[in-house]
Amino acid sequence: MSADLKVIQDPIYGALQVDEIEWQLIRSWPVQRLRGIKQLGLVESVYPGASHTRFEHSLGTMHMAGRIATHLGLAEDDVRKARLAGLLHDLGHSALSHAVEGVLSRNPEIQPVVGGKRVGRHEEFTREIVTAHPFGEKAVQLAEEAFGSADRLFGEIADIALGGRPPLGQIIAGDLDADRIDFLLRDSHHSGVNLGLIDADQIIQALVIHQKRVVLAGQNDYRAEMARTAAESMLIARAHHYNALIHHPAVQSIRAMLLASLENALSRLDQEEASTRIFLFFREYTDPDLLRFVSENGDDAARELLRRIRYGQQYPLAARFDHRSLEPGIRMALSTISRNGRTRKIFEDGLGKRYGTLVDITVGSGVPRSMRTGSNGFLYDESALAAGLVKALTGQIALSFFSDSQVAVSLEEVRARAARLLSFVRAESSLTIDGLLLLFLVLHRMLSETFDERILVPRIRNITWLYRIVSRLKGEAGLAGLFDYSFHSDYGFPYSEKLFEEIQILVAMGMIYQDQRHYDHKGRWLQRYEYMLTAEGIGYAEEVAGSYRREADLLRSFLKLERHSIPYDVVSLSLKRYRGRDGKAMANE
Q1: CB-neighbour burial class of residue 170 (10 A; exposed 0-12, middle 13-18, buried 19+)
Q2: Are the beta carbons of 107 and 263 closer than 8 angstroms?
Q3: Is the pLDDT of residue 366 over 70?
Q4: Smallest Cα–Cα separation from 533: which of 472, 501, 581, 495?
Q5: Which of 200, 354, 422, 434 is 20 to 30 A from 547 via CA?
């Protein structure tokens, strides 16, 4: 071992070797602060061993990033940058993990200002800290000596840590990245829940660089099969990890209690002071600091919530509804509400007051969106298992009520409250997922036909057509708000990760039916997915359309001009089997 390398013992990987600049960064206060922030927040109340910190995780991500970069054959400087980005990628995390982000999404008016704009997520704080590089004179000097300019180096590291500058950013923040590999291994090790175990060696071996991007190895050969298998195994582990740790009812209860107590404390400050304190949550506070803040600034109710959390007396689950007990229309409404912070606050608080409980809506997140294969396809297009796992992750939804007493919750009241609230939101602003539903509804009205006891239902057979048409609709006057997606052309066609994710949400919530089709392409049998509205989707989309009458007319006029270029087939179904919620067959136009 070189004399200028130091060794840190890690419970997952054993001896980690770090060079001098890494050692100076590790000793700096922004990195050392992470020792006081638990990786899983207060999950240790449910899983006693889960007391590991973001400091450990950052070291592990640094190590894993270096392994991936070395395997990919990157230049020595790029390997070092990948390691540095892994080490620093979580610097902007608030105390108590994601709890503060939950508060800020529900209360955007108290979001602190960073770089001239209000922010509510840790990534922007990470960028601000790394770019400013407050790591001490010695670390800056070493950066200058090794890379020429500390300002330039840490600017690059900030970009890489947030997923930019491919392929380096993909190593830290991609679909199969060092961050995910480490937290799945580490969380499983410390919690005792082995459902999240993965084979890191196999996953690393599955990665190669193609056209300056990290993709799965192989091209229609056995190596490609093994690479897909490794990727699938990580998706399975991720789904199990969320079910066992994040979606555990007791963990949800603690999260709801913590959020309520923190909101209580912040509400007792004026808006400017609250925003100033929140800035410190991301820059200086550790978990004990934040708990002390709540204790000192909250009222008796907030302190009682903290007391119960400290002594493992979280509120029991009084009622819970998930995808098995929620009909598609309610699932879709709750999914939309949960992804709009202010709306979620109004809904959860309103139901909580109605039933005298704490209420929490939990939905799946972190859906893999852009993992490519060596044959220039998407993983979820070439792997039916991956597509199913994406749907499973996206479809995770639970509406939970926590109280010392059992409650009788009316789902009809939940549905009515959700519909009223969304109607109010739509009167104020457009929702892109509504735009997608409206697009499918107009297509259905234009292209479907009914005769006798049958209906011909249109099925869009090319998802890339959806990307292209939505990218064009974004530029249409009067429709831009409904289709406000960001696109890039890295894959040879307009692609939007958010658009892909929202299509998957519609599939998972039962609004759109996704059908797998095989086709012959130059002697190879490939698969693709085709999409059509379900009967439940038509019913829900009809409700949505009532809030967008003008936009629906504009969309209809646009699509009529495109009718002959729409790639679709029709499926003949029994009219009795294809009905709306009210039992009446859906008419076409």
Answers
A1: buried
A2: yes
A3: no
A4: 581
A5: 354
**Span 65-87, pLDDT tens digits:** 999 999 999 999 999 999 999 99
Burial class for 73, CB neighbours closer than 10 Å (0-12, 13-18, 19+): exposed
Beta carbons within 8 Å of 487's beta carbon, 6+ residues apart: 467, 471, 474, 494, 495, 496, 499
Q: DSSP for 405-423?
A: S-----HHHHHHHHHHHHH
DSSP letter for 245, please.
Answer: I
State the Cα–Cα distance between residues 194 and 377, nearest whole angstrom.
Answer: 32
Tokens of 442: 């107009």
Can you list the domains of the chain with their CATH numbers? 6-192 (1.10.3210.10), 430-574 (1.10.10)
Lookup result for tokens 């009682």: 304
Contact predicate 501/370, CB 8 Å: no
Angle, in degrees to the nearest 10, between helices 341-355 and 99-106: 90
Amino acid at 314: Q
Calculate Rg over the CA atoms of the chain: 25
* DSSP sequence for 225-236: HHHHHHHHHHHH
The helix or strand, by DSSP H or E, that contains position 363, with its residue range, turns out to be: strand 358-363
Q: Are 558 and 476 in contact (CB under 8 A)?
A: yes
Q: For 418-473, how does the pLDDT look when each residue is reduced to its tens digit (9 = 90+)? A: 999 999 999 888 999 999 999 999 999 999 998 888 889 999 988 899 999 999 99
Element (H, E) at 534: none
- Please state the pTM of the whole predicted model: 0.90
Q: Find the helix or strand (DSSP H, E) in which 208 lies.
A: strand 207-210
Partners of residue 378 on adjacent β-strands: 372
Contacts of 304 (CB under 8 A, 6+ apart): none
Helix/strand/coil for 474: coil
Quick one: the chain helix, strand, coil %, rounded to 5?
55, 15, 30
DSSP state letters, 322-359: ETTTS-HHHHHHHHHHHTSHHHHHHHHHHHHHHHTSEE
Instruction: Please check whether residue 53 is in contact with residue 37, taking contact to mean a CB–CB distance below 8 angstroms.
Output: yes
Q: How far apart are CA 263 and CA 305, in angstroms?
A: 12
Least confident of 157-166, 242-251, 400-409, 557-566: 242-251
Tokens standing for 343? 């709306």
Classified as helix, coil or strand, 395 is helix
Q: Measured on CA atoms in the order 56, 60, 63, 69, is the torsion positive or negative?
A: negative
239 token code pair: 């789904």
Give strand ranges (E) for 89-238: 113-114, 117-118, 207-210, 213-216
Count of Cβ atoms closer than 10 Å to residue 81 Cβ: 25
**What separation in angstroms does the CA of 199 have from each of 190, 241, 357, 373?**
17, 15, 42, 19
Q: Residue for token digits 């939309």?
A: 336
pLDDT of amino acid 204: 94
Helices and strands per DSSP (H, E), number in the chain:
26, 14
Tell me what the pLDDT averaged over the chain comes to: 90
How many Å apart are CA 176 and CA 194, to the nearest integer?
A: 19
